[in-house]
């Protein structure tokens, strides 16, 4: 892992997994974190989002929580916007949810 690797925590709402999401969210997050989404500068951990007062996304660098503007600057150093990075991650997670739920049906 690079010393400057950004650790991103995505808080995933159970509802994104359908009406029975609460039954599956913990197991899905655990499975997803065994082989997390990553690229050359970022790695994502997924946790359930039970507390809506907490942000959906958290960025850390060297274990320090980054403010929103700091996260934007760090991500943009890698020639991608924060919005595009988050969209790429969300697309991956949506595909993983579909695969996971297909296995549960």
What does the main sheet amount to? 4 strands, mixed
Number of domains: 1
Approximately how much beta-strand content do the residues carry? Answer: 15-25%
> How many individual β-strands?
4
Order of helices and strands: EHEEEHH
Distance between the termini: 36 Å
Task: Name the poorly predicted regions.
Answer: none
Radius of gyration (Å) = 14 Å
Mean pLDDT: 93
Provide tags for this entry:
globular, four-stranded mixed β-sheet, 3 helices, 105 residues, alpha+beta, single chain
Can you characterise this structure?
- This protein has 105 residues and is of the alpha+beta class.
- It has one domain.
- It has 3 helices and 4 strands; from the N terminus they run βαβββαα.
- A hairpin with a 2-residue loop joins strand 3 (57-61) and strand 4 (64-65).
- The chain is globular and about 40 Å long.
- The termini are far apart.
- The model has no long low-confidence stretch (mean pLDDT 93).
Give the arrangement of secondary structure elements:
Blueprint: E1 6-12, H1 21-34, E2 42-48, E3 57-61, E4 64-65, H2 68-76, H3 82-104
Parallel strand pairs: 1-2
Antiparallel strand pairs: 1-3, 3-4
Tell me briefly what this model is.
With 105 residues, this protein is of the alpha+beta class. It is 44% helix and 20% strand.
């Amino acid at each position: 892992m690079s010393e400057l690797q950004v650790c991103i925590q995505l808080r995933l709402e159970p509802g994104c997994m359908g009406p029975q999401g609460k039954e599956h969210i913990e197991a899905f997050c655990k499975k997803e974190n065994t082989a997390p989404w990553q690229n050359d500068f970022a790695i994502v951990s997924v946790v359930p989002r039970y507390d809506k007062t907490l942000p959906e996304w958290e960025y850390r660098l060297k274990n320090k929580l980054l403010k929103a503007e700091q996260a934007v600057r760090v991500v943009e150093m890698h020639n991608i916007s924060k919005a595009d990075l988050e969209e790429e991650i969300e697309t991956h997670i949506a595909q993983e949810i579909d695969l996971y739920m297909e296995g549960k049906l």
